[in-house]
Amino acid sequence: MCGINNKWVSGRLLCFTVLWNFISGTPEQPNIVIIVADDVGWNDVGFHGSDEIQTPNIDALAYQGVVLTRHYTLPSCTPSRSALLTGRYPITTGMQGYPLRAGEPRGVPLSVQLLPEHFKRIGYATHAIGKWHIGSHKSNFTPTYRGFDSHFGYWYGYVGYHNHSIEQEVPNHQPIQGLDMHRGLSAAWDTKGTYATELFTREAVSIIQHHNVSSPLLLYIGHLAPHSPLEVPDQAAADERFSHITDPERRIYAEMLWHLDVSVGEVIKALQQRDMLNNTVIVFISDNGGQPHGIHYNKASNWPLRGTKFTLFEGGVRTVAALWTSKLRQAGSISDIFVHITDWLPTLYSAAGGNLSDLGPVDGVNLWPWLGASNSTHIPKGPPPRVGMLLNIDEILGLEAIIHGRWKLTRGSFHNGQYDSHSGQTSQQPDGLDSIANALSGSAAHALAAAGISGPTTRAQAFAVRSQATINCQKEMSFLPTNLTGTPLCSSNYCLFNIFEDPCEVEDIASSNPTIVTSLILELNKFRSRLVPQTNCPVDISSDPAQFNNTWHPWLD
Asked: How confident is the prediction for the chain on average, in pLDDT?
């Protein structure tokens, strides 16, 4: 790319490459577990420097694995899941716009093969749990028609944690509502009343317990937590466990995240009990940033990153992420390389021994040689192949952003800038090392250590990892979401940020770097030439669950 200085690659790579074991000269196909949390804030896990919410199992996964400090997604649910499961930027499939609404007749095109279809081709048993959100208006858009051997969960953006229903507003019509919890195509009425996180945990453990180990397992867990609505099994328990949090709604959020963390621990324990953990790759990510306020708010915190879910500022697209496998050359490491959510398909497919040419045209990059080298003679010495990425182009809302090296160019402001400010700092517990102690002493930490090379074993060692994964703003966070004239920053003009020196996006430096701005606009225009118009369309009233025993159903079959 013209006008861009690539010296960013020197001195910034903290990534430790890892080495995959060979059995008789041939790598054994690993089990792969992908856990996608929904709307977790950057500042809501211990390994990013916060002690407000205890996440010992997620933290153990990070401390004994690789913390991915530059992991990027799309700014909301459907686009991120589309990118993850296709390996393509959503602009190439028309999925780049607002998240899929219940009763909206669209989905990822059937002409595009999804991640589970590729893994089935190389011998994997494939199972999905939880959120789908990329199409269900026809049966052949649902999970078990698109590569998964089984699916238990919901098809749309969220459900009630206990009633498992979703209500959809319809213009000039009464809202429509119905159950959205399915096993395959069958409505799961029998699960109503049980907390969703617990249901998904039970299902994951059951799949692991009954898995035929003669074939490798691909398990995709798309959690509802901690997406809104703010619901917990026991309000009193939340108030007691998180009494140090003054905001009662944030206490509920913390309890939701706590239950998610317990789920992660249960999955790890089940893998260990089946003697599968020592040959498993676990990926934990959030689909986008947290939503402290605005539509579907959950009181998450992205501090100190600017922006929230739905925005292209760092708080919306730079997300919590960790990778663990027992074959790490050095557990407890930090990777500073760029990872985009589209990269997981080629990266994990490579880890599984697949031929990348099978995937067809993808935007994702195979990062396994940097994150999990599959050949002891091929530990890469040069810079990683991803030097930047498209964050999104939403041609209807006018939102677009691109990263190349240290430079990030963005334009557009969600809802006139109201969600573009930083999301506020959170409180801390009196002992700033409590979360580290819990992460090092919990059941997940012991299980992970028993399965492979042990990571940090002392508070000091873990604290060193956490310190490297914690973002500290180099510039004073005194910005406002609007400029002096009241126009939202970046709304009509491009903003340029040096996200290596200014990760909190405080200072727009576009005016002093016109050559870089021009170069990045040209790159954006190249992506724009590939854009398929987004497929968002009105809710179809014929989808009304009242016509299908009060359940959401593929109404266009």
From this structure: 90
Q: How many whole angstroms separate alpha carbon 414 and alpha carbon 212?
A: 47
Q: Would residue 133 show up in a list of annotated catalytic residues for this protein?
A: yes
Predicted confidence band of residue 478 (pLDDT cuts 50, 70, 90)? low
Q: Are 275 and 303 in contact (CB under 8 A)?
A: no
Give the pair of three-digit tokens for residue 203.
Answer: 């299902």
Query: Using CB atoms within 10 A of its CB, is residue 178 exposed (0-12), middle (13-18) or buried (19+)?
Result: buried
What is this structure's pTM?
Answer: 0.93
Q: For this structure, is 77 an active site residue?
A: yes
Please check whether residue 258 lies inside any domain of the structure.
yes
Selected catalytic residue, list 15, 48, 71, 77: 77
Q: Is the dihedral of CA 84, 89, 93, 98 positive or negative?
A: positive
Inside any domain, residue 132: yes
3-state secondary structure of 331: coil
Catalytic residue selected from 71, 133, 182, 422: 133
Residues of the chain above pLDDT 70, percent: 89
Which stretches of 73-144 are assigned E, i.e. beta strand? 125-131
For residue 117, the SS3 value is: helix
| Nearest alpha-carbon partner for 391 in 320, 315, 290 | 315
Residue 506 lies in a domain: no
Domain of 434: which CATH number? 3.40.720.10
Res. 304: pLDDT tops 90: yes
DSSP letter for 82, please: H
Whether 532 has a pLDDT exceeding 50, the answer reads yes
For residue 264, give its domain range: 39-387+418-468
- The domain tally of the chain equals 1
Contacts of residue 377, Cβ cutoff 8 Å, sequence gap at least 6:
none
Half-sphere exposure (CA, 13 Å, Cβ side) for 429?
A: 16
Strand partners, 31: 280
- Pairwise CA distance, residues 523 & 407, whole Å: 12
Confidence of residue 125 (pLDDT cuts 50, 70, 90): very high
pLDDT at 486: 56
For residue 555, is pLDDT > 60? yes
Residue 19 is predicted with a pLDDT of 31
Contact (Cβ atoms closer than 8 angstroms) between residue 339 and residue 71: yes
In whole angstroms, how far apart are CA 408 and each of 137, 389, 485, 505, 548? Answer: 37, 10, 24, 9, 47
| 338 located within any domain | yes
Q: Reply yes or no on whether the pLDDT at 182 is more than 80.
A: yes
